[in-house]
DNA sequence: CTCCAATCTTGTCAGTGTCAAGACTAGGGC
DNA sequence: GCCCTAGTCTTGACACTGACAAGATTGGAG
């Protein structure tokens, strides 16, 4: 740990994720983050420039984590779907920010975003052709929609716990013949 | 048009919806709304109490609009799904707020919310039994997930315009045998 | 005509994001 | 050993925001 604080950047990102998970991005306060980290109110600015910068960094981190989770899930699209939902539940703040472009600078997240997209499409490609239907691309959007919607609804508290606990049966309905 | 402004309440809600649709809920400013409406900075407080109050009113309005749209769509669940997505695209700010409980007071939206839920379940009940699968409730969550996910992804700019233009083929994939 | 309740204004306060300027620290070149 | 530069953090300031209190204005009921 280097100087006064050492890994302030990491600490701020982690604390921001906590705060957002509890009270949402709208209530996020840089000064509050600084207080929790024990630094002055202007310290965050040095690492992230401004608030958008911090949220941009969070979004990038989120896309990287998602890409990892998806590739770790292997080639099966069902497992990828479950991994997608688990990621959202495990990192609600990242997930929240990632899909709200007004919260960050979209032009800075390119590479990280592409990595996630590639991981998603890879999962789709490994699926047997008959299950993909006549238009595989449409099936891809349907799959993304169902897991994304499931995750979003679960995070907002709109799905009962027992359903959230095992998303597999719900996802399977899209591919069941 | 009663007093100085007349229907300030309605104007503020409409302007808030515009502002949120453009820059997101986090950037919403009561003082800015007041300026746009041509009233003093404290005028909104009288109608909504505080910021949460305004967003709560928006959420209620959203649930009412959604309930209307769903019942107007008739008994078919495919049409209901399309109506759900069209509602989200037509009223992005309402939709955004409705599904972010940290933005408003959940204990004040009961009735409006129940009306929407009832309209949704009615659509599901009118569906022929074989399409609902072994567990109709799970199918309901799957249907909700796919249309909600589709709407959310579309609003965040993650779906190509031609797919958004006609969501039907994507939704149909869930029920196609 | 009076009075009242609803609506809006003015004034104020603490809290926030951002910028500018300066202070401190670590580590490398001499 | 010493300096000096780049990176890190602090201090101070400013405009803006949400919220509160107190007062002004208005339309309408009686």
Provide a brief overview of the structure.
2 copies of one chain form a homodimer. Chain A folds into 2 domains: 8-49, Arc Repressor Mutant, subunit A; 53-175, Tetracycline Repressor, domain 2 (Orthogonal Bundle).
Task: Give keywords.
homodimer; about 180 residues; mainly alpha; Arc Repressor Mutant, subunit A; Tetracycline Repressor, domain 2; 2 domains; DNA-binding
Structural description of this entry:
The structure is a homodimer of 177-residue chains. The first copy, chain A, has 177 residues and is mainly α. Chain A has two domains: 42 residues, Arc Repressor Mutant, subunit A; 123 residues, Tetracycline Repressor, domain 2 (Orthogonal Bundle), CATH 1.10.357. The longest helix of chain A has 22 residues. Chain A is elongated, with a radius of gyration of 18 Å. The N and C termini of chain A lie far apart (56 Å). The interface between A and B is large, with 39 and 39 residues. The structure holds a DNA duplex (30 and 30 nucleotides).
Q: How are the SSEs ordered, and which strands pair?
A:
The structure is a homodimer of 177-residue chains.
Chain A: H1 8-23, H2 30-37, H3 43-48, H4 51-72, H5 77-90, H6 92-98, H7 110-125, H8 129-132, H9 136-155, H10 161-165, H11 168-175
Helix pairs in contact in A: 1-2, 4-5, 4-6, 4-7, 5-6, 5-9
Chain A binds a DNA duplex (30 and 30 nucleotides) through α2 and α3.
């Amino acid at each position: 740990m280097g100087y006064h604080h050492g890994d302030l950047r990491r600490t701020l990102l982690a604390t921001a994720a906590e705060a957002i998970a509890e009270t949402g991005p709208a209530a996020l306060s840089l000064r509050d983050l600084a207080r929790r980290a024990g630094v002055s109110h202007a310290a965050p600015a040095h690492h992230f420039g401004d608030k958008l910068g911090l949220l941009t960094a969070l979004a990038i981190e989120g896309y990287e984590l998602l890409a990892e989770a998806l590739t770790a899930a292997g080639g099966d699209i069902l497992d990828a779907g479950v991994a997608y939902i688990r990621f959202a539940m495990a990192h609600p703040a990242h997930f929240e920010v990632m899909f709200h472009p007004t919260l960050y600078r979209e032009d800075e997240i390119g590479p990280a975003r592409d990595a996630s997209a590639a991981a998603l499409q890879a999962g789709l490609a490994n699926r047997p052709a008959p299950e993909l239907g006549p238009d595989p691309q449409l099936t891809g959007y349907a799959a993304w929609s169902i897991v994304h919607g499931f995750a979003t609804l679960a995070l907002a508290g709109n799905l009962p716990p027992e359903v959230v606990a095992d998303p597999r049966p719900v996802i399977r309905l899209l591919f069941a013949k």
